Amino acid sequence: MCGIIGYLGAKRVVPVLLDGLKKLEYRGYDSAGIAVVEDSQLTVRRVKGKISLLEESIRSSPVDGKFGIGHTRWATHGSPSEENAHPHQDCTGSLVVVHNGIIENYLSLKKSLKEEGHKFLTETDTEVIVHLIEKYFQGRLEEATLKAVQELDGAFALAAISTQDPDKIVAAKMGPPIAVGLGDKEYFISSDINPILAYTRKIVFLEDEELAVIEPEGVSFKNFKGNKLKKTVDEITWSPLMIEKRGYKHFMLKEIFEQPQVVRDTLQGRISLERGKVLLEETGLSPQLLKAIKRMVIVACGTSYHAGLFGEYLLENLIQIPVEVEFSSEYRYRDFKVDEESLAVFISQSGETADTLAALRAVKERKGKSLAISNTVKSSIAREADGILYTHAGPEIGVAATKTFSAQMAALALLALYLAQLKRKIDKKATLTLIQELQRLPHKMEIILNAEKSLEKLAQSFLPYSHFLYLGRWISFPVALEGALKLKEISYIHAEAYPGGEMKHGPIALIDNQMPTLAVIPKDRVYEKMMSNISEVKTRNGHVLGVVFEDDEEIKDKVDEVIPIPVTDPLFTPFLTVLPLQLFAYYIATKRGADVDQPRNLAKSVTVE
Ligand code: AGP
Are 3-242 and 452-591 the same fold in CATH? Predict the structure, then answer.
């Protein structure tokens, strides 16, 4: 997954492009480049590595321009290198393209373009785009681009400029996102809104098979058939400040600490204490439709999948219908059945994960009903699902999901309670008790986060280990999975999560004094069972850290270290138990010198398959 950016306006283009690329770097950071035009002179500068290296290259040998495009890459085809970095040029050197996505038919296109005499310099799929546009170019960039995109199979968010049709940026979307910023006589295109918000909050989101033409007089829109389009302009409320680190060492730490507020914001306006009700009419799915649902499937990837597992336990408990949770990358290829009484829920904070989007489209092809839970307004998944429930976590810059996980759990709690209300599975008193506890969670989360220093100290003592086991049962099993994922993805340490009951079926063979166990053991229906798991680990010389209720005296001499959390309803413990695991992973990773905001090989939103 990559980041693309473009600017045309009165400002000098290079600082705008570099500043924008830094805000897109979380989308991919193995190479980067810009192309700028001044007096029909095109200059391209590319580096292998992060934006900081591109800045250094430009500092040591400055480039300047009136308008231009830029790119930060997460390699799919062609290794990370300067020659494979975008922008890519055509044979004449007067036309350049940046691209996010995958061109699936690039090999056949490359073959025929080579036969027509085009010279290729890279291993990338993207390069076929610039040669296709060159092939069709007859003076108007948008016309050549419209012809070129007809031949592309796969996903693309692209931008092109040419010295032969100057003062123009053309952008085209099929799959990954493109936002167009409408400033005061200055215009932007970007993979997401973060780089644009510093200049304007007026945003147009391109839909699939749409193209934007940016010129000094303004921006026009067309569909791939060449018909002019009238697009709505959204006024985005996110402030640029939300995107800054605000004194924290890393975005990830800032976002861990934002979680209490994020839960408040996601609950805001959706519960009524005086009426003892959840108010969730906003999804776009009618109460009649939701009331009739007899089975659900939750489809997601990564952390969002773990949130889905939390939702499964909650929904089964509160509305007593079958709920399955599936990985998007698997579900999309299954011969699954949908019917009038089933609802598919797609969880994606970015709303652009390719596998989740593909699974949603597969459900729609079978006429299934869909609800998206997303953090990104007007994202592809949010727009294509029948209904949408937005989380209000604000932009999450750290590649490792933290606050969006808590926000997704809050949204799932609201959904479960709303469905329980509609289906009369729960009376007003029980609903009131649960929504009152939901409203207490942010304060309880703050108590845990305030104990951050003790977790930092604890993490320090576990630096020597290179394998960890995470255990949880019932509603704590998704938390064990999420804790293991956090450690893996930001510290590169091997960590596995298992349901406690699985230990005897193999994993217990792993236990020795070199493989510490983090066990999530709130007092709930499986507490006793977890206690026996812990003693199995202890008798095999395993070291156990227990995430436990602060008032649990019994457990204190059963584990080696206790990480206390406030007491809450058994259904809501994941809001609290996940926090110490996030901080544990963060401190292990930072003390190992890892780049927690931009871990190797990862990208924030996987918009390629
Ligand atoms: C989690 O820390 C990772 N960043 C990754 O697993 C992520 O949750 C997954 O790619 C799903 O992303 P989405 O929510 O944007 O669909």
Answer: no
99 in helix, strand or coil?
strand
Is 608 touching ligand 1 by the criterion CB < 6 Å?
no
Catalytic residue flag (residue 604): yes
State CA 173 to chain mean position distance.
19
In this predicted structure, the answer to whether residue 74 has a pLDDT above a threshold of 80 is no
Ligand 1 pocket, residue 401 CB under 6 Å: yes
In sequence order, what are the beta bridge partners of 172? Answer: 158, 211
Please report, as a single letter, which amino acid is at residue 86: H
**Selected catalytic residue, list 66, 369, 486, 604:** 604
Radius of gyration (Cα) for the chain, nearest Å? Answer: 25
Domain 245-446 sits in CATH 3.40.120.10: no
Q: Is the pLDDT at 23 greater than 90, yes or no? A: no
Helix (H) / strand (E) element for 8: namely: strand 3-8
Which of 248 and 442 is assigned the larger pLDDT? 442
Instruction: Please give the Cα distance from 270 to 278 (Å, whole number).
Output: 6
* pLDDT value of residue 414: 98
Helices 428-450 & 573-591 angle (0-180, nearest 10): 20
Read off the pLDDT band of 50 (50, 70, 90): confident
* pLDDT (0 to 100) of residue 243: 67
Tell me the three state secondary structure of residue 119: coil
At residue 166's C-alpha, the angle toward residues 162 and 172, to 5°, is 55
Least confident of 134-143, 213-222, 292-301, 394-403: 394-403
Q: What is the DSSP letter of 253?
A: H
- Mean pLDDT calculated for residue range 578-594: 97
* pLDDT for 388 beyond 90: yes
Instruction: Measure the CA–CA gap between 377 and 413, rounded to whole angstroms.
Output: 20
What's the residue count for the chain?
609
C-alpha–C-alpha distance, residues 466 and 491, integer Å: 10
Angle between helices 13-24 and 51-60 (to 10 degrees): 160
- Give the domain ranges of the chain: 3-242, 245-446, 452-591
- Whether 91 is catalytic is no
Instruction: Tell how far the Cα of 139 is from the centroid of ligand 1, in angstroms.
Output: 42
**In this structure, are strands 369-374 and 342-348 parallel, antiparallel, or unpaired?**
parallel
* Predicted confidence (pLDDT) at residue 82 exceeds the cutoff of 90: no
* Contact of 391 with 264, CB cutoff 8 Å: no
Q: Count H helices, E strands: the chain?
A: 19, 27
Annotation: CATH topology of 452-591: Rossmann fold (3.40.50)
509: CA distance to ligand 1 center in Å?
A: 31
The count of other CB atoms within 10 Å of the CB of residue 109 is 22
Helix (H), strand (E) at residue 47? strand 41-48
The model's pTM: 0.78
**Which candidate, 167, 175, 164, 46, places its Cα nearest to that of 102?**
175
CATH architecture type of domain 3-242? 4-Layer Sandwich (3.60)
Residue 20 CA, distance from chain mean position: 18
What confidence tens digit (pLDDT) does each residue in 299-358 have?
A: 999 999 999 999 999 999 999 999 999 999 999 999 999 999 999 999 999 999 999 999
